[in-house]
Amino acid sequence: MPHDGHDHTDDHSELSPIALRVKALESLLIEKGYVDPAALDVLIDTYENKVGPRNGAKVVARAWTDPAYAAWLKTDATAAIKSFGFAGRQGEHMVALFNTPETHNMVVCTLCSCYPWPVLGLPPVWYKSPPYRSRAVIDPRGVLAEFGVTLPEKTKISVWDSTAEIRYLVIPMRPANTESLSEEELAGLVNRDS
Ligand code: FE
User: Is 16 marked active-site?
Assistant: First the structure.
């Protein structure tokens, strides 16, 4: 890849088929003048370093510590999330789902891979896989157990199907015994799979 400052001519044979395909496409697009390599660098940096689950973690920690913010998230998640500066593509219409002892929320895109990029980054491979997309609907409790989440039988599971229009962010329940933690420390407890 000429744009990342390295010469990969030595390890061509080690590239996976998909990496080779991306490389071929990228070379063609640059050759024909359709894309600027510097613009590609900015995009890659954005999604590797600036946009990701750490953004969503900040939203969750604020919701845990500020009841007024939580109420705002419930009524207008898009605006409440945008107040952090987290907005843009794939986050235009956000809905926050609050886990409670009665209801656990689970998100899937049965059609493809719709995902809230500004708060969670790019979707992980499992989220895009056909088995997750079908089994999340058929057996949500079983799929959650495979992720290490075993819920009491009485806890209802709501499965939400992402669409091109609406993207969801689940607000987990605040863990017990975290009263002494600051908002920043709380954010450190939250990851993508929370
Ligand atoms: Fe989708």
Answer: no
